[in-house]
Amino acid sequence: MDKLTTMKTFLAVVQEGSFSKAAEKLDISPQLVSKYVSALEDNLHTRLLHRTTRKVSPTEAGVQYFKRCQQVIIDIDDMENSLNNLSTSVSGVLSISAPMSFGTRHLAPLLVEFQKQYPNLKLDLKLTDQFIDIVEQGIDIALRIGVLKNSSLIAKKIAPIQLAVFASPAYLKQHGTPTTLQELQQHNYLRYANAEPTKMLAGVDQLKGEFKLNSNLVANNGDILLNAAIAGGGIAMQPTFISGEALAQGKVVRILQHLEPEPMGLYMVYANRQFLPSKVRAFVDFSSKYFGDTPYWDSY
Fold first, then answer.
1. Same structural domain for residues 32 and 155?
2. Strand blocks (E) in 117-221
3. Do 273 and 132 share a structural domain?
4. How high is the mean pLDDT in each 10-residue block of the chain (300 residues)?
């Protein structure tokens, strides 16, 4: 067996956290994964992994080897990409990470249309609302929402993201419709765990005294909060790619529009590489034109 294969196998085990998941990613058997890693350890005369019945994690030596090994693979990929980009062929596996609600609601048509243009390319989609290190996890492209901080990654905006504040007609009939931040504090706010409304709503910084919203439900998924609002549970603030259809159908009513945050962005994020893989370049070019300046979820 060649060293490059054993190195790629070791990388996959560390990234996936198990032999079985690494085997699935590499499309080989778990036994072969174990064999490759053991051969690598024997060749280096060093244990690289802690193995338990529940998980696999790198040793101190394994962490150092992982970092160096990762750079070697990147360098080899760059060399191959510089040659592959001379041709029009787009193939292999493209690994994509995306937020859960956006992915389930809006990504499938895009991916299907993309693969019609590039039938030799396979897609590996991972949906998560957790922030991940795309280089360490071996992700080619991540879709991220928000105002991105400076980093060594390249970020390309592909759509605007608006946030709407809303509640069900029944809730507003029973509790009244707030028109100011002060009145909003008297209501139940359905809070998204990964965002702080006091830092997003317009005018909060101009209030005298503390601004605090009462929440009896905190969740890390926007669809849950939308459904809770539809059921009359309180007031929520979610992107229109989640709430747009319910707003159009009258299941919830948009309120406090003068206090809505400035639009954010949907970005494609990928590693800053000297030679961008043709599969990444193809997806970036295709996706950047797909949603347009006014996405369809804002046109209900």
1. no
2. 121-127, 141-146, 154-161, 163-167, 188-192, 214-219
3. yes
4. 85 88 88 90 89 83 86 73 58 92 96 93 92 84 81 86 96 96 94 83 78 92 97 97 96 95 91 76 91 90
